[in-house]
Amino acid sequence: DAKTTQPTSMDCAEGRAANLPCNHSTISGNEYVYWYRQIHSQGPQYIIHGLKNNETNEMASLIITEDRKSSTLILPHATLRDTAVYYCIVKSGLTGGGNKLTFGTGTQLKVEL
Amino acid sequence: GAGVSQSPSNKVTEKGKDVELRCDPISGHTALYWYRQSLGQGLEFLIYFQGNSAPDKSGLPSDRFSAERTGGSVSTLTIQRTQQEDSAVYLCASRFQRDPLGNTGELFFGEGSRLTVL
C-alpha cells in the first residue's frame, strides 16, 4: 500500500474549519484514501474514505486532488472534542491488495478556544 | 453490546508470566484485527482473521505471541513469557467482509486492553 505523509501537528480555533493535508504521491489506481482519528485513550474511529471523487458525510469532507497524489480532510466547524490524532491511510479496497490498514504517526490536531 | 468489546481493560503482570486478552467483535463481522500501540507511538498491526481463511500473522513480533479465533467470533491474543517491551495498549477491530459497494469497509475498534509488564 502507498505511503502517506502528514504534518506532525496542527492547531485550529474552535468554530473554524480544520483542513488536514495528506500526501500520497505513490497511490495506485485501485487504492482508496481512508481517514481515521484517535481521541486520547480511545480506539481509532473511522471518519471517511474515498477513491477519486470528493466525499462528504456527517463528520467531515474529503477532497482528493485530480491526480490523486494528495487529499485534504476538512472538519467544517471544529470543536474542542475534535482534538485528536488524525490518520490518513491509503490501501487497496480489494482483498488481493492486502487487508490490513497501516497506521502512520498521523497529525495531532489541537482545537483551542 | 453494539460495539467491539475487549477485556480486561487493564492488566498488570510480572515479567515472565503469560497473559490472555479477549476480543468480542461486532456480531456479523467476519474480519477481525489485532493491533498494539506503545506509549506515544502509532498503531502496529499484529494479526488478521477473515472467516475460515488462514490468518495473516505477519505482524506478530515473536513466537511468544499467538492468537486464535473460535467459531468465527471471539478472539484471544496470548502473550507468553511477557517482557517489559510488551507493555502497550492492545486494540482489536472488526469489520464486515465487504460493504455494499464491494469495499473492504471501515474498521470498528474496541477501547483496547492496556497491558503493563513489571
Properties at a glance:
heterodimer; A: 113 residues; mainly beta; 5-stranded mixed β-sheet; 4-stranded antiparallel β-sheet; 9 strands; 0% helix; globular; B: 118 residues; 6-stranded mixed β-sheet
**How many strands, which pairing sense, and closed or not: the largest β-sheet of chain A?**
5 strands, mixed
Radius of gyration of chain A: 13 Å
- Overall pLDDT of chain B, averaged? 91
As laid out across the biggest beta sheet of chain A, the strand order is 1-9-8-3-4
Oligomer: heterodimer
Content of β-strand of chain A: over 45%
The whole-angstrom Rg of chain B is 14 Å
State the largest interface. Answer: A-B, 21 and 23 residues
> What level of helicity do the residues of chain B show?
under 10%
Characterize the structure shown.
- The complex is a heterodimer of chains A (113) and B (118).
- With 113 residues, chain A is mainly β.
- Helices cover 0% and strands 46% of the residues of chain A.
- Chain A is built from no helices and 9 strands.
- In chain A, strand 5 and strand 6 form a beta hairpin.
- Chain A is globular, with a radius of gyration of 13 Å.
- Chain B is mostly beta strands and 118 residues long.
- In chain B, the strands form 2 sheets. In chain B, strands 2, 4, 5, 8, 9 and 10 form a 6-stranded mixed β-sheet that branches. In chain B, strands 1-3-7-6 form a 4-stranded antiparallel β-sheet, with no helix packed on it.
- Chain B is globular, with a radius of gyration of 14 Å.
- Chain B starts with a strand and ends with a strand.
- In chain B, 32% of the residues are buried.
- The chains are: A mainly beta (113), B mainly beta (118).
- At the A-B interface, strand 3 and strand 4 of A face strand 4, strand 5 and strand 9 of B.
